[in-house]
Design goal:
The chain is α+β, with helices and mostly antiparallel strands and about 1050 residues long. It is built from 18 helices and 46 strands. Among the domains are: about 210 residues, PmbA/TldD fold, CATH 3.30.2290; about 250 residues, no CATH class. The longest helix has about 30 residues.
């Protein structure tokens, strides 16, 4: 929630599989350190795999089998590399084994249940954040409630079997203000409990909120401090973070072995490292300290080793280290501290850090010692660190082995005992120096519960410490922004009930105020301002082999602000400058990546609009100044205006909202994915369903307003295997629809997936494609896909933005085919028309819109007539020869909505095939034609795999190689022979000038809408300028006849085959039994 309104709600259940596989021996295995080479960051991250949440043993075994095969191949390769590396390097400093032998463990506990009253907690979050809305100078305030139950199943080949289940409930409140000099002033409160009853009651939380508000007001008035060295007291909470960051990480065992680490304490065992009265232990078996639950509690670590208390420092003397199953010199076994986030490799990590002092002082006594130190050192003041937000430490060699702790509430303590709040403090130093200055501790013990991030990911930890006195610390100035606080005061709160169209009322009222009053000193007012709010509801589900993998539903609201200063001829837009720092890149005051309230809360919505508009105005002022400076040193090639004038409209463009039934969708993906159960040669498979709708409100300062509902839907089926020649085999089918209601139902989708599974299985034994030059016929959806990929984006006129960076200038896009207007781009028989107002084709719903994203009424645009390019799709950014918008703005730029390609000399499908064979006979080379029925766009099962395969093939445009998913050789006698792995090379928009023939029939293909390179840069710029466009799926439909090309090139697949799986899949073994 934010400022009294809910901004996000979600629930999710997932199962993630981690396979940690070792080959070699305990002494030397595939994890052995490779020294003297560029670090392999991938060794710590293994990309967890989502597996079925249904308790289907075979579906789970299928995932286990597939992932084990992948890990085994990787491990064998890594072991070979490690052995070679070891033979080329000097002996390591620590020659301990790579893996320790541990006793097998057996432990099973019942799964815990999540106990959450969602409505009650939403009401609480509204109540907790509402007081911040009363403050004019608090610019961000959020409260988050998170409830989780993590159930872990762990088995290993040594005989360990463990099942644990651990709930956790967190409440986190964050707010920030700004000082007059631009410094951001954050304040945080967090609460953790193992049960919902363990969290504080409402009155306790509201008192904490009141303290936060008081602290922020005090910080705004507080003086900024200069760099300083001298004595300081750290409160228990601040000391806990201090010990965690500076001491705890340096006691993690693997850091003593890694030769890239500083190894601060590696050779100090049995030596004093702290004062004699200080002891430090780590105890993951400790659930509570007093009434406070500890986040670092667990029964077994992530390597199956029983948790235990470890006394690392006793009365100042270092005794041992935190150990995982990576032995180090002098310490051969784990002590139960091998920890990791899902998807990472376990290393030694902290748990519950406990600092104890043998003879604690009272706080008054510790303060007196501080004053005594000040006098001895002749310091005008000392420091008291009361609260800290976190910190970080650097433990590696080659860079300064230092730390930085980030305080929030810091006080100057004067010799007479007075305390003065200061701001802008960062606590810095080096570990050995600061530990030598620790003097005493008090009796005020405090707990810090949080998440700790390191090379094995984020893990929950606790740190418990008394307050401590350090005789000498060093502070430096905190970085600060130079941006001023908001120009306008907060919008007035509306005491009247939130009735009617609250969203539009809030938008119109804040737009009117901004246009009337928003300006800074002598800087110009906006001449144009628009708000667009997209309220998106979505439902997604995925299944494999009949078992559900995940299911998620959600809703969010996102804001796009477009603010222009200058005039229609020259303004701040069409410029892409390099951000001066990260805060400039992401935007400030919460507008950059934030979401709008889901509640129809007038005051909360206006507050967010106010902050986003302020950020956009300041960016606009900066951008227009930068743009003028850049152009002052250039000869402008065009005098095109930056923005076109368009007629104001008021439009309601709504369609029926689709019904999103979660149970029905889950049943659909379960049924369809079960088709792969009867395809034993498919190693991995998945069916996904996604659908939703976005409700949009738009207003601008010219008088335009619209409301719109845009639904979308898609289904994917994907499969992977290995061809008989060893080459990897991946394929998928996808169907996109203008509404979820148009997607195939359960029975229809199941039949389609069965057909796909059958074809995919046969593809394993299909001969690979050969190099080919000759006639290629694209039938049905393949023709539409090809036209969309190679020509579709070029039919939009993207204007390259001015940039102060040469690389960005070159990458910022071009104006498509604008220099070919008036030239022939297709055969004379072809006409191409864009018409978003058409909602159906041959009885199929194809989407459409009455108004584009900029509020321009859509209309028919005749792009190509008798083969000649007449115009291009544009937005309100004029391009050469096209001064007005065609009503085609979608997302970041102009894009197709419904594109219709027709020919007046179309052939029947049979005639088209005969024509292809006739061309083959004329050329007399190959003896067959290639018929393409589907282009590869089904995606990859393994995240980046699809992206990487596209990069290898050269992409889908610009002349790169296009992967072909379904193609055959067509012979003169009419028989067909399938081919595998074909890559279509060298197809560009220019290739379509020489289409040999086309069909009378046309196929309507709906697919995700695409914008050009400039559109992507514009969306990136929108993120920078404190606004974020609606992040929902927009579709485009291409209606295209089958297309015959007289000569295209096919490349054969590249790459080497890989060894077959070491053992067969579990379903094959079950069948044999």
């Amino acid at each position: 929630a934010s400022f009294g309104a809910i901004t996000d709600r979600s629930d999710e259940r997932r199962r993630a599989l981690d396979v940690q596989l070792r080959v070699g021996s305990y002494a030397f295995d595939n994890t052995h350190a490779v020294r003297g080479e560029f670090p392999d960051f991938g060794m710590f991250f293994n990309s967890p795999v989502d597996i079925p949440i249904d308790n289907d043993p075979m579906a789970i075994r299928a995932a286990l089998w597939y992932e084990t095969q992948q890990r085994y191949r990787d491990a064998v390769e890594a072991l070979s590399h490690a052995r070679t590396n070891a033979g080329l390097r000097v002996a390591p400093e620590d020659s301990s084994p790579d893996f320790s032998r541990e006793s097998p463990q057996q432990y099973i506990e019942a799964p815990e249940s999540l106990v959450v009253d969602r409505n009650a907690w939403e009401a609480k979050l509204r109540r907790y954040t509402a007081p911040f809305a009363q403050q004019h100078d608090i610019y961000g305030a959020n409260a988050y409630f998170n409830a989780t139950v993590e159930t872990h199943w762990y088995v290993n080949s040594e005989g360990t079997t463990i099942q644990t289940s651990q709930p956790g409930y967190r409440l986190y409140i964050a707010a920030f203000s700004k000082a007059d000099d631009g410094m951001e002033l954050p304040r945080y409160e967090s609460f953790y409990a193992a049960t919902p009853d363990g969290l504080p009651d409402d009155q306790t939380v509201l008192r904490a909120v009141d303290r936060m508000i008081g602290d922020l007001q005090a910080l705004r008035r507080a003086p900024a401090i200069d760099p300083y060295t001298g004595p300081a007291i750290l409160s228990g909470r601040a000391s806990a973070v201090f010990f965690h960051e500076i001491l705890g990480h340096r006691l993690e065992g693997h850091r003593q072995k890694n030769e890239d680490e500083g190894q601060t304490f590696a050779h100090h065992v049995a030596e004093a490292v702290l004062p004699a009265g200080f002891s430090v232990s780590f105890d993951p078996t400790l659930r509570k300290l007093g009434n406070t639950d500890l986040a670092g509690y667990y029964r077994y670590d992530d390597e199956g080793v029983k948790a235990r208390r470890v006394g690392v420092i006793e009365r100042g003397v270092l005794k041992t280290f935190l150990m995982s199953r990576m032995p180090i010199q002098g310490f051969a076994n784990s002590n139960g501290h091998g920890r990791r986030q899902v998807g990472f490799t376990a290393v030694a990590r902290q748990s519950n850090l406990i600092v104890q002092v043998a003879a604690p002082k009272t706080r008054a006594q510790l303060k007196q010692q501080l004053i005594d130190q000040m006098r001895q050192q002749h310091k005008p003041f000392g420091l008291f660190f009361d609260d800290i937000e976190g910190g970080f430490t650097i433990t590696q060699r080659g860079i300064p082995n230092a730390f930085e702790v980030l305080p929030i509430m810091v006080y100057r303590v004067f010799p007479d005992g007075r305390e003065e709040l200061v701001r802008g403090v960062d606590l810095i130093g080096t570990p050995l120096t600061v530990f030598s200055k620790v003097t005493a501790g008090d009796d005020q013990v405090a707990v810090f519960n949080g998440m700790c991030g390191a090379e094995s990911g984020y893990v929950p930890v606790s740190a418990v410490s008394p307050g401590i006195l350090i005789s000498q610390i060093e502070i430096q100035k905190k970085p600060k922004s130079s941006e001023r606080p908001p120009i306008l005061p907060p919008p007035p709160r509306d005491p009247s009930p939130d009735t009617g169209n609250v969203v539009l009322r809030a938008m119109r009222d804040e737009l009117a105020r901004s246009m009337a009053d928003l300006h800074l000193d002598t800087m110009p007012r906006p001449y144009f301002l628009s708000y667009r709010i997209d309220d998106a509801t979505h439902l997604n589900a995925a299944a494999s082999r009949g078992s559900l993998i995940n299911s998620a539903a959600g809703r969010n609201r996102r804001l796009t602000v477009e603010l222009r200063i200058g005039d229609y001829t020259f303004d701040n837009t069409n410029f892409l400058g390099m951000p001066s720092d990260m805060s400039d890149f992401m935007g400030e005051f919460g507008g950059g990546m934030g979401e709008l309230p889901l509640d129809d809360d007038y005051s909360a919505l206006r507050r967010e609009l106010w902050l986003a508009t302020d950020g956009s105005y300041k960016s606009a002022v900066s951008d227009i100044a930068e743009k003028r400076a850049v152009l002052a040193n250039r000869t402008r090639r065009t005098d095109l205006p930056d923005f076109s004038r368009e007629d104001p409209v008021t439009i309601t463009d709504t369609v029926p909202v689709p019904r999103l039934d979660r149970a029905t969708v889950e049943s659909i993906v379960r049924s369809a994915s079960a088709a792969f159960v009867n395809a034993p040669d498919v190693y991995q498979s998945e069916v996904t369903w996604s659908g939703g709708f976005a409700r949009t409100w738009y207003v601008n300062s010219e008088g335009t307003s619209y409301t719109r509902v845009v639904p979308w839907g898609s289904v994917h089926a994907r499969a992977s295997s290995q061809a008989t020649d060893g080459l990897p085999l991946e394929d998928g089918i996808a169907e996109f629809a203008a509404t979820p209601d148009e997607l195939p139902g359960r029975e229809a989708l199941t039949r389609r997936v069965q057909d796909f599974a059958s074809r995919f299985t046969k593809l394993r034994a299909t001969p690979p494609s050969e190099t080919y030059n000759g006639p290629v016929l694209f039938e049905g959806s393949a023709a539409a896909e090809l036209f969309a990929s190679a020509v579709g984006t070029d039919l939009s006129a993207d204007r390259a933005p001015v940039s102060d960076n040469g690389m960005l200038q070159r990458m910022g896009g071009a104006e498509g085919l604008i220099d070919q207007i008036g030239s022939r781009v297709l055969p004379r028989a072809f006409t191409v028309v864009e018409n978003p107002t058409i909602r159906q084709f041959d009885g199929k719903v194809i989407g459409g819109a009455l108004v584009d994203d900029e509020g321009v009424r859509t209309r028919e645009t005749r792009l190509v007539e008798r083969g000649v390019l007449k115009t291009l799709l544009t937005t309100r950014v004029p391009v050469t020869g096209i001064p007005r918008s065609t009503g085609s703005r979608r997302g970041g730029g102009p894009a197709v909505t419904n594109l219709f390609v027709t020919t007046d000399s179309g052939l029947t499908d049979a005639q088209l095939r005969k024509r292809a064979l006739a061309l083959v006979a004329q050329q007399g080379t190959t003896g067959y034609a290639i018929v393409v029925r589907r282009i590869g766009r089904g995606g990859s099962l393994r995240g980046l795999g699809g992206v990487m395969s596209m990069m290898r093939s050269g992409g889908l445009s610009g002349g790169g190689a296009i992967p072909v998913a379904d193609a055959v050789k067509l012979f003169p006698d009419g028989h067909e022979e399938p081919i595998r792995g074909a890559l279509l090379a060298g197809v560009t928009a220019a290739s379509f000038k020489d289409i040999a023939a086309a069909s009378r029939s046309r196929t309507a293909l709906t697919m995700p809408a695409r914008v050009g390179m400039r559109g992507m840069f514009l969306m990136l710029g929108a993120m920078r300028r404190s606004s974020l466009g609606g992040m929902f799926s927009q579709t485009a439909t291409f209606v295209v006849p089958s297309l015959l090309f007289e000569e295209l090139s096919i490349r054969k697949p590249t790459g080497d085959g890989i060894a077959p799986p070491a053992f067969g899949p579990p379903w094959v073994e079950t069948t044999r039994e």
